[in-house]
Amino acid sequence: MSKSKVHNLIVTVRGAQFSLTESRKILIKYYPLKSFVQTDKPIYLPGQTVHFRVVTLDTKLRPAKGLYDVIELLVRKTEILTLIVLHPHPQQNRIGQWLNATSNGAILQLSYSLNSEVREGWYTISVWMKGNQVNKRFKVEKYVLPKFKVSLQVPNEVSVGKEELEMDVCAKYTYGQPVPGMVNIEICRRPRSYLTDQIPGLCFKEAKQGATLRYQSVGVKTAVLGRKGRNCGISSLRGGMSPLVGAELIQTPVQLYRYLLRCCRLLPTPAVQQHYRHAIRQSYNSHSDEDDPERIHMIIQRAIVDADWILDKYAKKK
Question: Which residue intervals define the domain Macroglobulin in the entry (predicted)?
């Protein structure tokens, strides 16, 4: 059977004094064999041998005997990538073919030796079996294996009280020896702004020369990545603007809302003050349903930092 069909099932029961017949329609479903193509590598160099295998499995995932009508190795004629949907495809050149190959209930293993001057690009192994087609693509190109590998070991979390962030940079050749060179480190903190202005990220850069880069330890001052010293209620702002008190006492969204409105009074013009008041009200309404204490604390701290940055920005313009 090569396709699913609906059949009539008739059951008749006869006795000494009765006869009963029941008829039902049942679907006899056909499950075709599934074929797969595997290559030993995804990328080949010109002149290498492509080893591949074709396996056909039955409905119980057991290797089945398969008779493959045609197995072809195709390469594109043009640089435009086209999928094989016809047989043969006009955009493909056939460079290898196997006819009526059989697996005999096992895995069919084949190979093809590429010419040293073969064209680089994508190749396709096309397998036809009882009108069904299975394709497997691989690439031919001249590539160079990496000579060394760089690994970076950093802690997942860093305490705010820690003065330095320690990390290990390891560069080793494929045969295990360390690599001489220079380490260029860039660490950035990308703050999220809850107001309309986008705060630029704070970055730390360092170049460190080493005879070898095997577990080269690099220390970064965490103070560079923190915003120490300035906010509306902790220290004075540049430009002669008066500080506000109470930033360190904020614990609830309502207290933060009132604090930010007080900060708006330090802005230079009524239009700017009105602009930020509107932004603060929108942000307050969007976060009014927050009930996670840790999340609320994070929002409060970031909003204070944002407000400090905005006030500092306008103070510099004076």
Answer: 35-140, 142-193
Q: In what order do the strands lie in the sheet with 132-140?
A: 43-44, 132-140, 121-129, 67-76, 92-102
180-205 residue pLDDT tens: 777 777 777 666 555 545 555 667 77
Averaged pLDDT, 275-303: 82
Q: Which helix (H) or strand (E) holds 73?
A: strand 67-76
> Could you tell me which of 50, 59, 130 has the C-alpha nearest to residue 95?
50
Measure Cα distances from 206 to 121, 155, 213 in Å: 41, 18, 15
44-73 in b/e burial notation, b at 16+ Cβ within 10 A?
beeeeebebbbbbeeeeeeebebebebbbb
Q: What global pTM score does this model have?
A: 0.42
Reading the block at residue 291, the tokens are 């009930």
**In contact, 112 and 47? CB cutoff 8 Å:** no
